[in-house]
Amino acid sequence: MHVVIISVSDPEISRALNVTETTNVSVSLRWSIGNTQHIDMIQLYQRKIDESETTATNTSSTTSHTVMSLRPGTKYEFYVQIQSYGKTARTESITPTTGETMSGY
Fold this sequence. Notes:
This protein is mainly beta. It has a domain at 18-90: Sandwich (Immunoglobulin-like). Helices cover 0% and strands 36% of the residues. It has no helices and seven strands. The strands form two sheets. It has a four-stranded antiparallel sheet with strand order 4-3-6-7, with no helix packed on it. It has a three-stranded antiparallel sheet with strand order 1-2-5, with no helix packed on it. A hairpin with a 2-residue loop joins β6 (76-84) and β7. The chain is elongated and about 70 Å long.
């Protein structure tokens, strides 16, 4: 009988989550994943600062995502969480504000 022991380490994700672009209705985010060989899921969490409900979105990209259809002039909270072999790691939260709409044009 052979016994194989597989050591599973915690997934690695940079704690920093960066905004690369903000428009009136979108926020583009970038993060980095460390030496994680296997990723089961990457989820982007978002909520409006003045609301308690958080929405999770699965993303197929491993390092960036653009959140669309946001409200102009609204502050949001975002963070990214990855899951690997049942273990999770997450970035710090970031709170960008979408741009204001221009009136009179």
